[in-house]
Amino acid sequence: MTSIAQHEALAQAYEGITAVVAGRNDADLQRPTRCRGWLVADLLFHVLCDAQRALVALASPADGPPDVDDVSYWRTFPAGGDGDAAARHAWWARRSAAAFDRPGGVVRLWSDTAPAAVRSATAADPAGCVSTQGHVLRVPDFLATLTTEAVIHHLDLVLDLPDAPSPGPLACRVAVTTVDGLLSDDAVRPSDWDDAEYLLKAAGREPLTDRDRAALGEAAGWFPLLG
């Protein structure tokens, strides 16, 4: 994905999430999201943990070679994998977000952390590698994984916030390219899907319709493509 400056895509992805949550009152931050059991503040805390993970990884360069790239990384976390672990993480994130005196406290910490992660991403050596979650990735591939997750969670966040902005086009392009890679060269997304629908269905947030299954053929059985 050499045509994309990955730190710029990550900046746009994180700025998009900030635009969704900044200035929201406590009631808005307690609205539901597409992630079952998580309110807006809970999901924002989960994405905040990604930004913190980025800061740690980018400050701790790793020896190569990489063992995964921006697409194969997701295959190590299959959709519908360890349900117990996912449930424990969901419960931990909810309790952690609830520990703030008000939901807006998560927004304030996000607003401090996300730009710091972007500054670290901008300063990182694009030829270098980092280690995260048991894998070694090239820096641009690592940034692409963060962007993809941020874009999908942006779409999750706005479920009950109809006035919220959409993810930016550069960030969406990274996420769509990732999902294209997971779909494989032998399948093509249905022509009537826009990027948001493609990403939501690839992530299992929206079910495939009969028409979708007919258009996808055998590839319908691969959905969701990532969790």
From TrEMBL:
Domain Mycothiol-dependent maleylpyruvate isomerase metal-binding: 11-157
Protein name in the entry: Mycothiol-dependent maleylpyruvate isomerase metal-binding domain-containing protein
Organism: Micromonospora purpureochromogenes
One Pfam family hit: MDMPI_N
